[in-house]
Design brief:
By secondary structure, this protein is mainly alpha-helical. It has helices at about 5-15, 35-40, 60-70, 80-125, 125-145, 150-160, 185-200, 205-215, 220-225, 235-255, 255-265, 275-285, 325-335, and strands at about 20-25, 50-55, 75, 170, 175, 290-295, 305, 310, 315-320, 345. The protein has three domains: about 5-100, Rossmann fold (3-Layer(aba) Sandwich); about 125-285, no CATH class; about 290-350, Molybdopterin biosynthesis moea protein, domain 2. About 55% of the residues lie in helices and about 10% in strands.
């Protein structure tokens, strides 16, 4: 129990566990209950704790103010102990139900994303590899820029290539034909737009959809002339996704990161941010400074970089040189029994 607003907040911050519910008075020494509740609801750690006010104040204005700062109930004095117990139990049950619903949403969302990734990996390993490579590089770029809460960009990168599956065709012999990696900007935007149409059907992915939308347009003139730290985060994330999507598609033809990045620097129509191209160049240079190893399939681990194409016995390219192996791409390799005894040239994981 705390005797003042300040001590209540201190007790919360220093506690190892998050309380299931808070009973709060309006009138307290120093900081009043409304301000305490407002600060609790502004905290990422404590915002989901149900707060019940109990007070001798009984005006409608007082009750409305309590609900506006985030309270779930307002009990007016005098009150019976049984009433408080009943209301507390009710709100604890509601909170537990919300927690279960949120967990179900999270599991369903993660399951949906995993299923989409599996579809990409099974249907077209090359598309899957592009999306994984984009996600990994986005994570490194955001770390270099000091961007926090970049989960939406990583997820946008991971799912941005799913629109390419719309180009997959099956011929009369039931052989899957991969989409040609077009360099045409309109075609790339079409892929991104198709990805958006798929993802917008999934609840709670609005931030991801916004980044996908922004990635379909060049950075606006105002943002181009700003310091990178002054650009709005959504616009910056959209631009990072655009750079990565264009970079990896150009790499399909060139397979030379130095040449591709030089082209992108000289593309005045797009005006890619030089700072991001510099970071991407540094990432790629660091990857290829590592020692090249020739390993058996069973020795390969997630995070290693390929230095040669991996092809089937029929000559079909499964994975191209320069890509970083993930658990899903390693699983793809293991499905091809004819590759079991083959040695692969890879580079050790960076860092």
């Amino acid at each position: 129990m705390a005797l003042s607003g300040a001590s209540a907040l201190k007790l919360l911050e220093e506690g190892k566990e998050v309380p299931n519910l808070i009973l709060l008075d309006v009138m307290m020494p120093g900081m009043n209950g409304y301000e305490v509740c407002r600060r609790i609801k502004a905290s990422t750690r404590f915002k989901n704790i149900p707060v019940i006010f109990k007070s001798s104040l009984n005006e409608t204005f007082d009750k409305v103010k309590a609900f506006k700062v985030g309270a779930v109930d307002f009990i007016t004095k005098p009150y019976e102990t049984e009433e408080i117990i009943a209301r507390v139990e009710t709100h604890l049950e509601i909170a537990e139900s919300r927690k279960e619903i949120n967990e179900l949403y999270s599991k369903t969302l993660q399951g949906t994303i995993n299923a989409m990734n599996d579809i990409m990996a099974i249907t077209n390993p090359e598309v899957s590899n592009i999306s994984n490579a984009m996600r990994i590089n986005a994570e490194r770029i955001t770390m270099a820029l000091g961007l926090k809460n970049a989960w939406d960009l990583r997820l946008a990168c991971q799912l941005s290539a799913i629109g390419m599956l719309a180009d997959i065709k099956v011929n009369k012999d039931d052989d899957i034909q991969s989409p040609k990696m077009e360099l045409d900007i309109e075609k790339i935007n079409e892929y991104l737009n198709l990805s958006t149409q798929v993802i917008e059907k999934i609840p709670r992915l609005e931030p991801v959809i916004k980044i996908l939308d922004l990635s379909q347009l060049p950075l606006d003139e105002t943002s181009k002339n700003k310091q990178i730290s002054m650009i709005k985060q959504d616009a910056l994330k959209g631009h990072i996704l655009r750079i990565l999507f264009h970079y990896f598609h150009k790499m399909q033809d060139e397979n030379n990161h130095v040449s591709v990045l030089k082209q992108m620097r000289n593309d005045h129509e797009e005006s890619y941010l030089v700072e991001i191209l510099d970071i991407l160049n540094e990432i790629k240079n660091n990857q290829f400074k590592n020692k090249i190893l020739q390993l058996e399939l069973l020795q390969i681990t997630s995070g290693m970089i390929l230095v040669e194409d991996i092809v089937t016995s029929e000559g079909r390219i499964l994975l191209k040189a320069g890509y970083e192996l993930s658990d899903s791409t390693i699983a793809i390799l293991k499905r091809y029994s004819q590759l079991k005894e083959r040695k692969f040239k890879v580079i050790r994981k960076v860092g």
